[in-house]
TrEMBL record:
Residues 6-73 form the HTH gntR-type domain. It comes from the Bacteria. The keyword Transcription regulation applies. InterPro entries: GntR_C, TF_FadR/GntR_C, Tscrpt_reg_HTH_GntR, WH-like_DNA-bd_sf, WH_DNA-bd_sf. CDD domains: WHTH_GntR. This is GntR family transcriptional regulator. Keywords: DNA-binding, Transcription, Transcription regulation. PROSITE patterns: HTH_GNTR. The keyword Transcription applies. One of its GO terms (molecular function) is DNA binding. It holds the Pfam family FCD. PANTHER family: GLUCONATE OPERON TRANSCRIPTIONAL REPRESSOR, TRANSCRIPTIONAL REGULATOR, GNTR FAMILY. Gene3D superfamilies: GntR ligand-binding domain-like, Winged helix-like DNA-binding domain superfamily/Winged helix DNA-binding domain. It comes from Salipaludibacillus keqinensis.
Amino acid sequence: MKPKIMNKSKYAYDLLRSRILDGTYSPGQRIILDQFAKEVGSSHIPVREAMRRLESDQLIEYKSNVGAVVLSIDEKVYKETLQLLAVLEGYATASSASHMKEKDIHKLIEINDEMNECLLKYDFNTFSDLNKKFHFAIYSHCPNTLLISNIEQLWERLDTVRNTNFSFFPMRAPHSIKEHIEIIELLKHQASIIDLETTARQHKLNTLSAFENRN
């Protein structure tokens, strides 16, 4: 019986989480326990467990006399997320380098070229999607799966911010493309782990600086 409850809890968690991250549930929106439990065909127990996990993820909070409410991600959390990503992505990039082949580096060049085309067309939504694709094309070679899982979760949080609170800042785009080229060159020429990690970390910190100076 317990595995079934756990499976229902995981299903409820995954569904709630995806709806929060894709903007279906907007910041401040109340999640009604009874209504959602009926939707997923579950009792209250698995849904409550799912909500506890989401509260731990800082995606919802409980308010007295209201219940579970979707949290908005404020500017402070956004900055802290970028700072943490800078550290994790720097290490992930350096760890991926020795596992990448020439065809993998060529794929990065293709993605970055596509990003440049999107920039010329002012298609910043596709540009942002390709930016994520570029970095995860590198991380797919990283042997530390837990590290990549953490990076994925942090990116999803940034996606939530981008979809709800903060707009993309286009002045950063051309600099991002140039920095990608620098990373590609380091990978191509098998640069030292220190150089790769430092460059990748600074790349993310430059995004933070652009955000701070966006006004």
